[in-house]
Amino acid sequence: MLVKRTYLFRGIEVVNLSEVSEEGEGDEEKEYEHRATTRQDDERNEGHGSDYHNNDTDINLVTDVSYFDHEVILNMAQNYVGGGLDMKCAKTIIGTLADLTGSERVAWDDVCGLQDIKDTIEVDVILPWENPDYFKGLRAASKGILLYGPPGSGKTLIGKCLASQMKARFFNITASSLITKWAGEAERAVKTLFQIARAVQPTIIFIDEIDALLSNRSENEKQWERRVKTEFLTELDGCQSNSRDRVLFLGATNIPQSIDPAFVRRFATRLYVPLPKVDDREVMIKRIMSDTDHSLSKGDIQLIALETEGYSGSDLRTLCKWAAKFFLRNVPRSLAGKVLLPEIVPPVVLDDFQKGLKVVKRTVSQEVLDQLTAYHAAQR
Ligand SMILES: Nc1ncnc2c1ncn2[C@@H]1O[C@H](COP(=O)(O)OP(=O)(O)OP(=O)(O)O)[C@@H](O)[C@H]1O
Ligand SMILES: [Mg+2]
């Protein structure tokens, strides 16, 4: 059956005719058409069809809870792999699935700044996944993305956002847990992880602290550590073979310089997630404060943004929380004995932030930043 998909890419209408088997694939094709049409309608209504991210906040979000149902996923994996699935490992791996339905979902607008990264991810993953007939060969989706940058700069947030938007299952694993939880079995866990990922795609395998797992090989490393690394290499290379698979291996690290170069090469896309610049900090503070009563003027927010040089997104959130709670921590004695009603809690003011700035300091040291920028410069 010939299926027509239309798709809007930066204001250009892309029409794609592709042959699909009548069995099984129909629903997915309808879903594609529906998503493409919804997006176009939204873009026309909103009147800014050339900006992909700004108007794509709520279209693809997952609302079906069965999407994260562990039993459903286990069944899918069993059907796909057959008797060879290691059930014990599979259950533990499925336990790492992040539920991105409801309030946990992340929209592109929730990720402030980082426009270059959003653009790269759009071209390297989103468009090829949505439209594999146009994006094949050299233009096929990246199978591996390495996000490196200082702590709290938004690496995990980007992963969750991509998964929310692509209706992808998001396996959120820290390398240290893989090492401690699975130790001797880690090799089997890695194999099972990729089997499940292929079975239930689209999938994002997100591994935080990837440096702990894929560090430079050394004389002292244990046998099983070596086997885990070999298994990763095999799986990553295996991923490259089917360009239509929608499985993304997303690694995040604060110390990319300690990753084995053989692994770094496997990440076709390597992105530096920097600390926010002053303009981004302004947007971020505004966004964080948007659901809290405050009397900050534009000028106040600009001032806070200027005074928070070197703060990460995470530091800014901590600062805003501190400022928002300042009054509550110091309820005046005159209110003793009275009921503390929301009405008598005053809006957050600039002074709350100025006090907060004395307590909440930047957490990323200059030394860490220098190492990261040096690594980044060497990549170019
Ligand atoms: N660019 C950003 N836009 C909006 N919020 C951000 C951004 N960066 C960080 N934050 C805030 O900081 C929190 C921590 O970010 P996140 O966990 O993504 O950082 P990270 O880079 O993964 O850090 P780590 O290296 O410690 O794992 C987020 O939940 C969010 O509240
Ligand atoms: Mg993180």
Report on the structure:
This protein is of the alpha/beta class and 380 residues long. Helices cover 48% and strands 12% of the residues. It has 15 helices and 7 strands. The strands form 2 sheets. Strands 4-5-6-3-7 form a 5-stranded parallel sheet. The chain has a two-stranded antiparallel ribbon with strand order 1-2. Strand 1 and strand 2 form a beta hairpin. The longest helix has 21 residues. The structure holds adenosine-5'-triphosphate (ATP) and magnesium ion.
Task: Provide a concise account of the structure shown.
48% of the residues lie in helices and 12% in strands.
| Main sheet properties | 5 strands, parallel
Helix content: 40-55%
Tally of strands:
7
Order of helices and strands: EEHHHHEHEHHEHHEHEHHHHH
Q: What is the CA-CA span between the terminal residues?
A: 45 Å
Uncertain segments of ≥5 residues (pLDDT<50)? 23-63
Counting DSSP H or I runs of 4 or more residues, the number of helices is 15
Rounded Rg: 23 Å
How much of the sequence is in beta strands? Answer: 5-15%
Average pLDDT rating:
80
List the helices and strands and how they pair.
Layout: E1 2-9, E2 12-19, H1 26-46, H2 70-81, H3 87-94, H4 115-130, E3 144-148, H5 155-166, E4 169-174, H6 175-182, H7 186-199, E5 203-208, H8 210-213, H9 223-241, E6 247-253, H10 261-266, E7 269-272, H11 278-288, H12 298-307, H13 313-329, H14 350-359, H15 366-379
Parallel strand pairs: 3-6, 3-7, 4-5, 5-6
Antiparallel strand pairs: 1-2
The protein binds adenosine-5'-triphosphate and magnesium ion.
